[in-house]
Predict the structure.
Amino acid sequence: MIMLLLGLIDIIIAIVAVLLSFGIHLNALAYIAGAYLVLKGMLFLKSFASVIDMVAGILLLLGILFAFPPWVFWVIAAYLVQKGIFSLF
């Protein structure tokens, strides 16, 4: 059940990353998404995927303040979608 919930949250955060790539800044949601990824990465720090989660969270948080190329957010979204789908099954 926890894996299902974490997978769904990853997919929702991927949607936030796609919105950021189009310049749609939902600041509160992006802050929550970035902080969630960083905290989840710190919680499960022993796996390489958690380190990537932390990097993705930091990039989402910085993406609110600085202009990154859209492909950065697309890479984050692709990673989170595939991770979320694998968590669902």
